[in-house]
Amino acid sequence: MKKSLLSSLLVMSLVFASLSGCGKQGGETAKSGSAGDSANGDKIQIAVAAPMTGDNSEYGIGFYNAALLKAKEWNANGGVLGKQIEIVQYDDKNTSEEATTIAQKIVSDKKVAGVIGHFASGVCMTAAPIYQENKIIEISPSSSHPDYSGIGDFIFRNNTVISKEGAASIDIAVNDLGKKNVGIISIMTDWGTNTSKMIKEMVEKTDAKVVAHEEVMEGSDDYTPAITKLNEAGADVVICCGMYNLVAPVAKQYKQINPDIRIVGFSNSYSQQLIELGGEAVEGVCFPVIFFSESDDAEVKNYVESFKKEYGNAPSALTSQAYDSVGILLTAIKETGTTDSEKVKEKLYEINYKGVTGDTKFDSNGDVDKQFVKVTIKDGKFTKMD
Questions:
Q1: Which residues touch 164 (CB under 8 Å, ≥6 apart)?
Q2: Could you tell me if residue 366 is left (phi over 0), alpha (psi between -120 and 50 degrees) or otherwise beta?
Q3: Coil vs helix vs strand at 383
Q4: Cα separation, 123 vs 292, whole angstroms
Q5: 10 Å Cβ neighbour count for 31?
Q6: Could you report the per-residue pLDDT of 31-89, keeping only the tens digit for each?
Q7: Helices 317-336 & 298-311, crossing angle to 10 degrees?
């Protein structure tokens, strides 16, 4: 697969940045998960690298649990290439420093058949050049930054580019909700900054307008200064560029000022935690998702039931994208008859995988294009929008 000169330069610059910014060595944690009966011989290892502790740990633990479940299913049927599958957990704490350390450990050990992760786009883009340089396959279930997959031909994402999800969020705000005065509140991260900029540009192409934009610190307890400015600007809908830990408190605090405000988020806020944290305040919050746990599809229903039985809760969209990512990687290994990363990588560009998040076919850049389901919260439950 040919990549552009721009991508090549990006790889070189990010590798240099990752190596020069590397701090503590050995701060990462690695844990093997039992995914069915272990084989006596060699195992095929898949790494799951994501935040297992900290504010975003729910996402990393979701990735890990989904990977264990998928591996358990394969192991019950003999594994792959006659070997059992072992899922190895790495905690990157959602920081570039830890991700660099983990990526260097993974490529040094030379044991894994591929990496599922990382979570945040910025963290993914720190680790990806290291995997690319060492020909280790990385499939992120969540990175949406447009430049991520362009880092190299061993880098894939089982998630849509943020511009596509952003367009779906705007469609909900402007067309489904019928709002014309858009407010934006975004977290001060690389993802938040790029996403809010993209939302502004795309809203300008509709008959709506952005009346105000406020940036906030992730994890803050008080968003009322930003909310007050958005409300005074006349926003009748607010697009939240952040996870559930932004959407829930914003909904609570905003509705104390303006109970009629409508709030639209992204798939990264589609989590039971949103309802638990937001309560009645998140009633009516909307977002587009690739995966909907209440789907009538038989395969999705079986998966959701298995996940609930194993872990006690329904899987989120990003968790389910991790589940399918493991399935895609194992299918490519099975069809090539080897774990040789060069051959498996080429197979990944060829296969069309039918999973719980729909049909997955990587394009020449390692990206996917999937259909969105519009979801809202009604009576304390996630519901498909009419």
A1: 369
A2: left
A3: strand
A4: 26
A5: 12
A6: 665 443 323 348 999 999 999 999 899 999 999 999 999 999 999 999 999 999 999 99
A7: 110
